[in-house]
């Protein structure tokens, strides 16, 4: 079979006006950090993009002081309508600078430009527009009249959707009347720093949002800071557990959005062509660096071989390469560490007896790359069926009955998302009802909307982001005590009920 050849179609980087060095964004200004510097590199070329400041404990303290001052003197005194105006302004500026943000995101993260341009950045604007609309309607958020903000929110985010995760955290926090200290991931600080410029353009009062860059130690300093009232974390389950332990017994509120190992269930009456696209989107979107990725494919036995064959043909057409090329489907793996983890777990998959397959694709010489990979003959006890790989690797299993599909889908320590493909609405509803997952897609996958709550069960974390529920994470009912007990340190199934 021959496929169309595409000429290179690289997006221009001329739209970027990057500085060679970035400081920390504290109290409305870029300031030098005192914790040293590090480089942010492009994972597709390994070339340095900019020098970034690492925030020390003292810098984090400065940021929290600025956030507290802004909360006491300005933000808590503004009406909801006025807070909303700032959020609308930020949303419009994100739209105005959309192309620049998309190019910066693809450069720093490695994701294809068509994803950052058509998914990440439009959703960032949508998140700010959505929560801007809530800012003067908090009485209707389900917490009674006059709910109150919590104070200073400390937020730590991962590298897979850098600007979108920032929007998920910052927009509801500000709409609810909190001020923010946020730390982007160390491998993807760039769009957060451009966002700081947007905040300046929007004339957001100084100190309302503070952006501190750095690695885990900077995140830990935010989490344990005594004047932070609310911690919101998105990242790995291991770090989430550590954070829960750190703040247990304090009066901080906590939201954890952690890992996942979602089942994508395809029944024999599913629209197969549509399902194939959904499977590809479920696991190869964003190189599989997606917490809710459909990384376990459960196919009804009677159509297993057909689905696998069609999937393999489809994968032959995926273009892997330059993230800035508009035709690229699968970009670079975000870091050398992540690539090593994907390689290790994939090798273990082979050793455990699963059958490994990848399409013929030439990978670029420099940078971090991993070909889309499918494992068949996978059993539920294999590590590739249990552990989050967080890469473009799909584990395929089969089932005979809906009950078996449900049992296999729920056989995971996680519970973030799931997908169901079937022609029958009644079957979709019956199966969805029994899946222990926070988000369930039917005949689609990896769709996000700011009005829809998102979050997990079990080791996928607790709390919800998005929608009215996402506001609840940044508000307390009027008159309630300032002391809100943090959840216990172990994330158990019981807690989710
Ligand atoms: P990670 O936990 O290593 O890092 C996440 C963030 O936490 C980074 O900013 C990091 O610097 C910081 N951090 C590291 N150690 C810390 C500590 N001790 N205290 C405070 N902060 C600390 O995760 P990662 O590798 O960056 O991201 C991948 C993980 O994130 C995956 O497991 C994925 O499933 C999860 N994720 C979940 C969601 C969700 O919404 N549930 C979304 C995206 C990613």
What would you note in describing this structure?
- By secondary structure, this protein is of the alpha/beta class.
- It is 38% helix and 16% strand.
- The chain has 16 helices and 20 strands.
- The strands form five sheets. Strands 14-15-16-13-12-17-18 form a seven-stranded mixed sheet, with helices on both faces.
- Helix 12 (383-386) links the parallel strand 15 and strand 16 (393-399).
- The longest helix is centred in the first third of the chain and has 22 residues, at 113-134.
- The radius of gyration is 22 Å and the shape is globular.
- The model is unreliable at 482-497 (pLDDT under 50).
- It binds nicotinamide-adenine-dinucleotide.
- The site of nicotinamide-adenine-dinucleotide (NAD) has 29 residues, from helix 7 and helix 8.
């Amino acid at each position: 079979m021959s496929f169309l050849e595409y000429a290179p179609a690289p997006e221009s980087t001329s739209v970027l006006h990057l500085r060679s060095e970035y400081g920390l964004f504290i109290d409305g200004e870029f300031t030098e950090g005192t914790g040293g510097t590090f480089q942010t590199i492009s994972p597709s070329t390994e070339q340095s993009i900019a020098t970034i400041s690492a925030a020390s404990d003292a810098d984090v303290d400065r940021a929290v002081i600025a956030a507290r001052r802004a909360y006491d003197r300005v933000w808590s005194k503004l009406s909801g309508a006025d807070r909303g105006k700032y959020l609308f302004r930020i949303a419009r500026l994100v739209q105005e600078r959309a192309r620049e943000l998309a190019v910066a995101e693809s450069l720093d993260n490695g994701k294809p430009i068509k994803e950052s341009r058509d998914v990440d950045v439009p959703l960032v604007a949508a998140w700010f527009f959505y929560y801007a609309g809530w800012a003067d309607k908090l009485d209707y958020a389900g917490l009674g009249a006059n709910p109150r903000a919590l104070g200073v929110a400390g937020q730590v985010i991962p590298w897979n959707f850098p600007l979108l995760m920032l929007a998920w955290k910052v927009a509801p926090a500000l709409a609810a009347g909190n001020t923010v200290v946020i730390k982007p991931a160390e491998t993807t600080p760039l769009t957060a720093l451009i966002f700081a410029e947007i905040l300046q353009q929007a004339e957001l009062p100084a100190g309302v949002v503070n952006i501190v860059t750095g690695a885990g130690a900077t995140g830990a300093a935010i989490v344990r800071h005594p004047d932070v009232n609310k911690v919101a974390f998105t990242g790995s389950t291991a770090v989430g557990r550590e954070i829960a332990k750190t703040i247990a017994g304090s009066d901080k509120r906590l939201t954890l959005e952690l890992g996942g190992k979602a089942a994508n269930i395809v029944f024999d009456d599913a629209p197969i062509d549509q399902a194939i696209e959904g499977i590809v989107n479920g696991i190869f979107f964003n190189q599989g660096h997606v917490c809710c990725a459909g990384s376990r494919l459960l196919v009804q036995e009677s159509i297993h071989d057909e689905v696998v064959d069609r999937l393999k043909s489809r994968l032959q057409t995926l273009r892997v390469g330059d993230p800035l090329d508009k035709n690229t489907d699968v970009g670079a793996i975000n870091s050398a560490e992540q690539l090593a983890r994907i390689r290790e777990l994939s090798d273990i998959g082979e050793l455990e007896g699963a059958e490994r397959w990848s399409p013929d694709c030439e990978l670029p010489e420099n940078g971090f790359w991993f070909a889309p990979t499918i494992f068949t003959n996978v059993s539920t006890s294999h590590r590739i069926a249990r552990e989050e790989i967080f890469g473009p690797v799909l584990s395929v299993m089969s089932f005979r009955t809906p009950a078996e599909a449900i049992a296999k889908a729920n056989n995971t320590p996680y519970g973030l998302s799931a997908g169901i493909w079937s022609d029958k609405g009644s079957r979709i509803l019956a199966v969805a009802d029994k899946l222990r997952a926070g988000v369930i897609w039917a005949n689609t996958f990896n769709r996000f909307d700011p009005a829809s709550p998102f979050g997990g069960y079990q080791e996928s974390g607790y709390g919800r982001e998005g929608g009215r529920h996402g506001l609840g994470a940044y508000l307390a009912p009027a008159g309630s005590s300032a002391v809100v007990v943090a959840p216990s340190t172990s994330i158990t199934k019981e807690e989710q009920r």
